[in-house]
Amino acid sequence: MKKLLNTLYVTTPDAYLSLDGENIVLLQDKSELGRVPLHNLEGIVCFGYRGVSPALMGACAERGIGLCFLTPHGRFLSRISGPVSGNVILRKTQYFQAEDERRSLEIAKSFLLGKIYNGRWCLERLKRDHPMRINQERLDTAIRQMLHSIAELEKAQTREELMGIEGIAAKAYFGEFSQMILRNEESFSFDGRNRRPPLDPVNAMLSFAYTLLGNEIAGALEAVGLDPAVGYLHTIRPGRASLALDMLEELRAPLADRFVVTQINLGIFNEKDFLKKENGAVFMTDDARKRFLSAWQKRKQETIVHPYLKEKIPWGMAAYAQALLLARYLRGDLDAYPPFLWK
User: Fold this and answer.
1) 80 DSSP assignment
2) Phi-psi region of 156 (alpha: psi -120 to 50; beta: other; left: phi over 0)
3) Contact call for residues 243 and 230 (beta carbons, < 8 A)
4) pLDDT less than 70: residues of the chain
5) pTM to 2 decimals?
């Protein structure tokens, strides 16, 4: 397994990063705010527009350190990385599979199986852990619908059919998502998933978590030699990390969704941690985002038993484990891609 290193989050919007020897130097108005050794890092995420020096970009590329740029509110802008690792045969196989409708459909089914299965178990856990605080009839209806959707996946013959099944399952899951919020329900009301922009605090936190997780998945795919832009479920578009979005589907419920719900239920955030713009968009404040990132890093250190490998790993390595399994499948070492089936 790849050694779990650290990610540097730069949350000062007008900060500029430069290179001094083997150190990253954080500058603001030509004043040094701090420095971090390069050898301690596997990724850098910048919230702002000032950017980094060409020398630092080159050093990160040489060392395989990913550079991700987000707006001050956490919207993804771009990701920079060095040469793709791994061999060209693996990537050729990836591209060939993406062009083959039948093979592509089978991989897409695996991603959606993971998504619906994991979402269903989030609801099952809620039902088990808080039986007196939930509407069990509604929850049971959603769970049955998701089980039906899982059965329908195998019958799907086209990508359009898959997306229809996924849409029904997602509606059932997010229709009961509000029942997971057990504290401060008035400030964290949830009436459904919305984005671009998020219109309430819960969606703001979910979008931010998905952005962070998606960036980590893209880095994991690159690390094993796969192209994050060429996927099987999401269509290929310029600037879109389609394969990273594919893998995000199976990991979002157990990793991102449960993380957000936990932070809300622990009372870590309240209504003062969010700003509402004139267009209705809701974003976290700078202080809230820093606390969110700190908790995110701590959560990544917690261990889980990987459902397929049966080994204990930090949950921050789940994306890398799945990227390795996908690469093994594409190389012919596995008969099928095993999705992350959490329980």
Assistant:
1) E
2) beta
3) yes
4) 1-5, 73-75, 81-86
5) 0.82
